[in-house]
Amino acid sequence: MTVTLADVAARAQVSPATVSRVLNGNYPVAAATRERVLRAVDELDYVLNGPASALAAATSDLVGILVNDIADPFFGIMAGAIQGEIGGPGGRAGGERLAVVCNTGGSPERELTYLTLLQRQRAAAVVLTGGAVEDAPHAAAVAAKLRKLADAGTRVVLCGRPPAPDTDAVALTFDNRGGARALTAHLLGLGHRRLGYIAGPVERTTTRHRLEGHRAALAAAGVEEDPRWTVYGRYDRQSGYEATLELLRRDPSLTAIVAANDSVALGACAALRESGRRIPEDVSVAGFDDLPFSIDAVPSLTTVRLPLAEAGARAGRIAMGREEPPPGGIASVRGELMVRGSTGVPRAS
Amino acid sequence: MTVTLADVAARAQVSPATVSRVLNGNYPVAAATRERVLRAVDELDYVLNGPASALAAATSDLVGILVNDIADPFFGIMAGAIQGEIGGPGGRAGGERLAVVCNTGGSPERELTYLTLLQRQRAAAVVLTGGAVEDAPHAAAVAAKLRKLADAGTRVVLCGRPPAPDTDAVALTFDNRGGARALTAHLLGLGHRRLGYIAGPVERTTTRHRLEGHRAALAAAGVEEDPRWTVYGRYDRQSGYEATLELLRRDPSLTAIVAANDSVALGACAALRESGRRIPEDVSVAGFDDLPFSIDAVPSLTTVRLPLAEAGARAGRIAMGREEPPPGGIASVRGELMVRGSTGVPRAS
DNA sequence: CACCTTGTAGAAAGCGCTTGCTACACCGGA
DNA sequence: TCCGGTGTAGCAAGCGCTTTCTACAAGGTG
Lengths: 349, 349
Fold this sequence. Notes:
Oligomer: homodimer
Keywords (chains A, B): DNA-binding, Transcription, Transcription regulation
InterPro entries (chains A, B): HTH_LacI, LacI/GalR-like_sensor, Lambda_DNA-bd_dom_sf, Peripla_BP_I
Protein name (chains A, B): LacI family transcriptional regulator
Organism (chains A, B): Streptomyces achromogenes
Strand order of the largest sheet of chain A: 2-1-3-4-5-11
Structural class of chain A: alpha/beta
Domain HTH lacI-type (chains A, B): 3-57
């Protein structure tokens, strides 16, 4: 059998209650007694029974982190930063929490199921990252879940995700619109007038916001947009590759391609190169996020840097109650335009 | 208050035991009764109390996945694949498990702490990914933990990690040595004789194995190695950048650089380019892993493809008991040499 | 010296669920 | 009619911990 609290108590010649108190450090215990207990714990190699403890205390030390795609560094970086603050190991004494990353794969059902699972585990906090799915019933279901979680005492934080109305979830949103607008404005400033846009999945808020920013910039500059210039895809490299070929087929005279994110931009570069076009002499390319590899693209990628790690860390701290939530529970995190080699003045047409 | 089993039982006019049995589906319950219970569950919006359930049943539905760096796609891809098989949501009915990814940051202490945390939660299975740290005391501590976990009924699987002796953990190892050897042999075949090697952190098994493979290839070709040609670093881009500068300083006549992994190789490319060298005309570069972005490097990266997703999926299935472990509990997974544009014949010196 | 603090430790009542065992119908066969 | 299945459901005993309440000793105070 495994060692229990009672075994430790017997060995240390104290009551189980005392052992529990020593372990939790939330009650005065005489130094000598504590010593004895700790020695017994050590000798017996005792490990607390998490479920039992959670049941009795009606709280758990689990913190859930939901991500759309764990293989995507965008989420990996945020998750890492969040987890770093949650502490898990390495955190401040006693407050050892198990930060768990759940991969929804962008599927609404999985998202809900994971939330239920976390609710079932009575998680201490939940952090949802990345764009939400814009499906009314699903959004409502998620909001209801979040409300229920909050009611049960779980702290809910959204990181890089739009606020959830009717929920007291704290939201740290990325200013996707603003970033996209600045990016496209940069391109327009260089003289581009025929810009292709490779969007992400239609139903994602991130997709919509970035596209809106792009269009706002066009509108502000008085550039009329051709509907053929927008293609929807996924947030991965291959999607960028395919979408670019499609874009070129529709209008070979495009002088710039704005991608939904850096991975997509990389795919776009590959497609352009294969079609014999030079970057940026023939076509400029821009991404979004500024993931680590973007600077190593050739030419290096013009993009919008999102402070993924910083935002994640902050979300983590808020989830742990170690930092005040922003006023109103909502904060917008701005991106920074990184102008690099992949964008330049358009070729004289 | 939250809804409990008893509330559901009252509502459905049955005993708590019956409700439990309906929910777990491990005992015959009359269809009509089941119906009634399920309706009550639905109406009350009941969510099982995980800790209580785990305590009573002495098992939990948690599965832990330990990774060295969650922001690194190498781990992200594996973790995603493992999680996909673990099921979490989307898995087969009833078997809903919470697959949790824990980020050790490559720190031995964190690794141990996470293992303890998982042991505390009475995890159903644990998958450790990536290279282990080669520190005798630490290795022993981990082995002891793994043994204890196994004793407690937790299935332990190592994925992309060398077998742990004296442990009945199933191991799916990557053939780093063989892959590295093939890679360097390729370079030697092209005519290179002066090859720089950028290794990972010294204490990692992965680092050692890849380096050994590299040296084995050199030895087999009768090429004498200069100690100055090896530099140790981290597994990230910046490390590759810095190490390359160091390598060039030590010996500007190198005609090829073999990197510990693709990220490092990317950093190496950047450094070479900045120093005015062309790839592969002046210097060939090779990576390892074949992460998604490697094919988009310019020129695209010669590397060794590791079947990350496949291995992860297999590890996940084994962890779930849905696939037989390999004979002897150990399987070696081979990499595949991907020859691409970043390697070529050396310049005529 | 009685009395109240203060500091420590134990007794015991759960926390919400699972499950072995028991109980009760109801059925067909003897 | 009696009896041994067979199919369902309930009882109740925990699972291993936390925490309230109580107990007691020691020390200070009037």
